[in-house]
Design goal:
The protein is an alpha+beta fold. The chain is built from twelve helices and 15 strands.
Length: 491
């Protein structure tokens, strides 16, 4: 019985010993796990710090608009926060088809800085071909035997690898004054707008190592992504600004051209009525010239038959001067029409109507047309009086031609002047048959005419619309009323 008890005690001790060993192993595993967790925590803290720095960096970049400032801020960030000894940013130059140094940091010797600044990398350089093939970065290292190895990687896959004495890669590193270096494309992957080169010199003990480790790749990849997005965004903004400026320039040129055409049309319209004006001068002067000729003949006959006394001479002079004054008033009416309007003035609309009717009085009389003017009040408007007379002339001449073509028994033109609210309204109505409904909406279009090329240019009514609506801020319209058409001008 005592022996059995002793055996049972030994088994319990052995069992406890095994449990102790198992617990010791668990404690060791927990200690190791705690160490790993501590390492992960440190890594996460480091990444969080990098992300905070990158966030601040991104905010600073967003305030920059030119490429050189963006690249200068980038190389400073690499030195201050990523931990490499040296950094260079190249920018693509379209004219020379190469990459040229735009910014660099970590070169404190003036001679070294000048040497690196003068570096150019042709787009056709074999060293860059793998970057243009879509890789994320290029890492080049030189070992203690002076052999250079290079890897071009994308999505954690090696796209290109060269081991051994690659003279071109070694020479490229020597020109950068770096032993080991990485190259990241910035901007469009197909043809990057810029390149970021980071690396260290020989015996760079206190700087971040050039390798393909996860931390290095993550830090530089995040940086390259931020800078690439901003460069492409700024390039898009630049293209948009250029397109916007080009569009604005073209619109301004088109507006200037249209304004010039409007001026030419007004001038052509004025020239088009010159023949009409000269004809009206002839009509206006024909009768007084005949009367003046008769007065002179009577003067000559009286002198030959019985001689002239003072009273008869005074009578002949008074009659002649009255005729000459009438002719002078006619000339004044025409002369004012041809004076250019340089600026807007306040003018009496009724006076313009009366002057216009005076100009056309002779031609109306020959066609048997007796125009009627009905005016309510004497309103004034701000605008260009001579251009306004030109509008009235065109409309009245069109009315006269319609009446001449239709030949109604009693040709009539009714001109009315009145006010509606703050607007002055002039209407010109005739009984010349009106305008066909199928073309009435087109008569103000440029070069639209129903008279044929030998009789009309199609610019008269378009010029009227331009003067009234663009130059004077009014409105002109037309409609058929009764036995003819009515033009309505509001200013």
């Amino acid at each position: 019985m005592k022996k059995a008890s002793t055996l049972s005690l030994e088994q319990m001790v052995e069992s406890l010993q095994q449990e102790k060993e198992a617990l010791a192993q668990q404690v060791k595993r927990l200690i190791r796990a705690e160490g790993k967790l501590y390492e992960y925590q440190e890594e996460l803290d480091a990444q969080l710090k990098e992300y905070e720095q990158l966030y601040d960096f991104n905010r600073r970049l967003n305030r920059l608009h030119d490429l050189q400032s963006i690249l200068a801020e980038t190389v400073s960030y690499v030195i201050d926060h990523v931990g490499f000894e040296r950094a260079i940013c190249f920018a693509r130059d379209e004219e020379s088809q190469s990459y040229q140094v735009f910014a660099l940091e970590g070169y404190y010797d003036p001679a070294e800085k000048a040497a690196v600044t003068s570096i150019t990398l042709p787009l056709s350089s074999p060293c860059l071909s793998s970057l243009f093939a879509g890789c994320d970065y290029l890492v080049c290292k030189t070992d203690r035997h002076h052999k250079t190895s290079c890897r071009a990687e994308s999505q954690e896959m090696i796209l290109f690898q060269a081991d051994g004495s690659d003279r071109r890669l070694a020479e490229l590193g020597s020109s950068f004054l770096m032993k080991d270096y990485l190259i990241y494309p910035l901007g469009s992957p197909a043809l990057p707008q810029a390149l970021l080169v980071v690396g260290n010199c020989e015996n760079a003990t206190f700087y971040r190592k050039v390798d393909g480790q996860r931390g290095t790749v993550l830090a530089l990849g995040n940086l390259a992504g931020v800078v690439s997005w901003l460069i492409e965004h700024r390039a898009s903004e630049q293209r948009y600004r250029q397109l916007s400026e080009e569009l604005e320039r073209r619109v301004q040129e088109a507006v200037d051209e249209l304004r010039q055409k409007d001026k030419l049309l007004i001038l052509q319209g004025r020239h088009a009525v010159m023949g009409e004006m000269i004809s009206n001068i002839a009509h206006q002067w024909r009768q007084p010239l005949n009367v003046l000729g008769l007065v002179l003949q009577e003067l000559q006959l009286t002198q030959h038959k019985q001689g002239l006394n003072a009273e008869e001479v005074d009578s002949f002079v008074k009659r002649s001067l009255a005729i000459i004054r009438q002719m002078s008033r006619t000339i004044d009416s025409f002369r004012h029409f041809f004076k250019p309007d340089r600026e807007k003035v306040e003018f009496r609309v009724r006076e313009c109507l009366e002057n216009t009717l005076t100009i056309l009085e002779g031609s109306f009389r020959m066609q048997g047309i007796a125009p009627t003017l009905e005016a309510v009040g004497d309103p004034t408007v701000d605008g260009y009086p001579n251009e306004f007379i030109q509008v009235l002339l065109n409309i009245l001449i069109n009315a006269r031609e319609a009446l001449t073509a239709r030949k109604p028994a009693a040709p009539q033109i009714l001109v009315r002047l009145f006010s509606e609210g703050d607007r002055t309204v002039v209407t010109v109505a005739d009984n010349g048959g009106g305008i066909p409904e199928e073309i009435i909406d087109r008569i103000f279009d440029p070069y639209f005419t129903t008279k044929g090329p030998e009789q009309g240019t199609g610019i008269g009514l378009f010029m009227c619309k331009t003067i009234v609506e663009k130059n004077m801020g009014g409105r002109i319209s037309v409609r058929n009323v009764g036995e003819g058409a009515e033009f309505r001008i509001e200013v």
